[in-house]
Automatic annotation (TrEMBL):
Subunit structure as annotated in this protein's UniProt entry: Component of a signal recognition particle (SRP) complex that consists of a 7SL RNA molecule of 300 nucleotides and six protein subunits: SRP72, SRP68, SRP54, SRP19, SRP14 and SRP9.
Subcellular location: Cytoplasm; Endoplasmic reticulum
Record PANTHER family: SIGNAL RECOGNITION PARTICLE 54K PROTEIN SRP54 (PTHR11564), SIGNAL RECOGNITION PARTICLE SUBUNIT SRP54 (PTHR11564:SF5)
Keyword Amino-acid biosynthesis belongs to the record: no
Protein name: Signal recognition particle 54 kDa protein
MF GO annotations: 7S RNA binding; endoplasmic reticulum signal peptide binding; GTP binding; GTPase activity
Positions of the SRP54-type proteins GTP-binding domain: 269-282
One GO term of the biological process aspect: SRP-dependent cotranslational protein targeting to membrane, translocation
Organism annotation: Durio zibethinus (Durian)
Length: 446
């Protein structure tokens, strides 16, 4: 069961409970059992699930709730809070600061995606104005240095490593020294992963850690490892001071829940998740928005984060202003389609919104989606200014649609399909009404 399915099962359970005429012990139990089953099937550790269930029952005492109370809301909130609690052990042990040198060491098993993640992490920060650098202290795996070098070169990030030197501690120390002198503010040390947990791996990790004194150790974990996640995470935590976790391959068919319960084993938060092989398929992990997304409630903060990343800086204030007004016109849709075609990754922006990406831009079918968007734009090219600037879908009566179909040379069915898409997006958009608008140039205020 992938995470999206887990989310679906949980929201369905909540929905079913909401549909019941009276919410009594039986309805609540059914809902909780359904959620428990979904979590267990997703490889979340049994003890965590059991604790969660007990806690919700403690909070939601149906007998004590007076008739006036909105039981559904209270139960929903309790489920949301407990899921958040399960995934949130607090802040990472250290948070690097831009402009101040920090050393971050990456650890994890071979194949977990460690080297890829090092570059993604560096690239993410570089885009935000940091000066990152990569050090390859993996002398065990043949080709590790080449891989890091290739990734780093592509992203224009300075790197350090050696084909000749076999002592990882020496390389790590030299690399860190060098980049400290060059005033890099984020020095990332990639260590060896080996095949499985073995004494030599942990010993080497300890030595590199002692020699480079990292400010933060990040444990990289493949989301597909399932129930083994808890023990693996704990073994790493016992050898080095893991301060944060990054879970990779969340895009795959992995169950994901196991890796998430690793949070409990390391008592360290997940700070990012990897969602693909490419450099920018990397997302900040925040518990509340994640759970909100998991439950199909949308992830507004992730959405804002992505807007800052992919919408050209000069267009951001205008787009946000329009968002806050909540009026979604066909012209806004047209402009956003233009962005999607121009910039590609903006598709990721909308994937943060419930219902958007799945239908308009399914992953892996980008070409078809682009063709569809182009067709919609051709249709819109035959609209009048009044039609484009109106946020009232009723304006688009049948005779107008017929005219547009004739003008654009498309079938009326396509015009109707485009309008359906518009209505769907407008509904999502309307939820943005009242959004706080940051001052021009100060996107960090969000
Ligand atoms: P390492 O041995 O831990 O350094 O792992 P690598 O960085 O070499 O990654 C192993 C494989 O996983 C490579 O093929 C990566 O492209 C792939 N990979 C890493 N992160 C992700 C991710 O988030 N999603 C997907 N789909 N693949 C990933």
């Amino acid at each position: 069961m992938v995470l999206a399915q887990l989310g679906g099962s949980i929201s369905r359970a909540i929905q079913q409970m909401s549909n019941a005429t009276i919410i009594d012990e039986k309805v609540l139990n059914e809902c909780l059992n359904e959620i428990t089953r979904a979590l267990l099937q997703s490889d979340v550790q049994f003890k965590l699930v059991r604790d969660m269930q007990t806690n919700i029952k403690k909070i939601v005492n149906l007998d004590d709730l007076a008739a006036g109370h909105n039981k559904r809301k209270i139960i929903q909130q309790a489920i949301f809070n407990e899921l958040c609690k399960m995934l949130d052990p607090g802040k990472p042990s250290f948070t690097p600061k831009k402009g101040k040198t920090s050393v971050v060491m990456f650890v994890g098993l071979q194949g977990s995606g460690k080297t890829t993640t090092c570059t993604k992490y560096a690239y993410y920060h570089q885009k935000k104005g940091w000066k990152p650098a990569l050090v390859c202290a993996d002398t065990f795996r043949a080709g590790a240095f080449d891989q890091l070098k290739q990734n780093a070169t592509k992203a224009k990030i300075p790197f350090y490593g050696s084909y000749m030197e076999s002592d990882p501690v020496k390389i790590a120390v030299e690399g860190v020294e060098r980049f400290k002198k060059e005033n890099c503010d984020l020095i990332i040390v990639d260590t060896s992963g080996r095949h499985k947990q073995e004494a030599a791996l942990f010993e080497e990790m300890r030595q590199v850690s002692e020699a480079t004194k990292p400010d933060l150790v990040i444990f990289v974990m493949d989301s597909s490892i399932g129930q083994a996640a808890f023990d693996q995470a704990q073994a790493f935590k016992q050898s080095v001071a893991v301060g944060a976790v990054i879970v990779t391959k969340m895009d795959g068919h992995a169950k994901g829940g196991g890796a998430l319960s690793a949070v409990a084993a390391t008592k360290s938060p997940v700070i990012f998740i990897g969602t693909g092989e490419h450099m920018d398929e990397f997302e900040v992990f925040d518990v509340k928005p994640f759970v909100s997304r998991l439950l199909g409630m949308g992830d507004w903060s992730g959405f804002m984060d992505k807007i800052q990343e992919v919408v050209p800086m000069d267009q951001q204030p205008e787009l946000l202003q329009k968002l806050s007004e909540g009026n979604f016109t066909l012209r806004i849709m047209y402009e956003q389609f233009q962005n999607i075609l121009k910039m590609g990754p903006i598709g990721q922006v909308f994937s943060m919104l419930p219902g958007f990406s799945a239908e308009l831009m399914p992953k892996g079918r980008e070409k078809e989606s682009q063709a569809k968007i182009k067709r919609y734009m051709t249709v819109m090219d035959s609209m009048t200014n009044e039609e484009l600037d109106s946020s009232n879908p009723k304006l688009m009566n049948e005779s107008r649609m017929m005219r547009i179909a004739r003008g654009s040379g498309r079938h009326i069915r396509e015009v109707m399909e485009m309008m359906e898409e518009y209505k769907r997006l407008a509904k999502i958009w309307s939820k943005m009404k009242g959004l706080k608008i940051p001052k021009k140039g100060d996107m960090s205020a969000l």
